[in-house]
User: What shape does this take?
Amino acid sequence: QVQLVESGGGLVQPGGSLRLSCAASGSIFSMNLMGWYRQAPGKQRELVATITGNGRTDYANSVKGRFAISRDNAKNTVYLQMNSLKPEDTAVYYCNKVPPPSWSRGYWGQGTQVTVSS
Assistant: This one.
């Protein structure tokens, strides 16, 4: 059973900030490459940030310079600090291994909704 629990989403005005958290089971987290994905209505799920077991990060061009991914290996938790949010960042945000074990629903958490609107 996959255990991924995302939290921290909400409604924020353009230019605002949010910090997302993802608690993962040890079997998923371990020292694996972890990432934050997002899915906007009518669009495919996309990978926006990744972090290696020792903390090396990478970002999609659309969020580079605005988002920061981090992890706490002792807590099996991954974070996503999102600053300077834009309406186009509106989506459901998920975390998972990179690549994910499957795109099927059962291998993902429930996600957390981020809505950027004035």
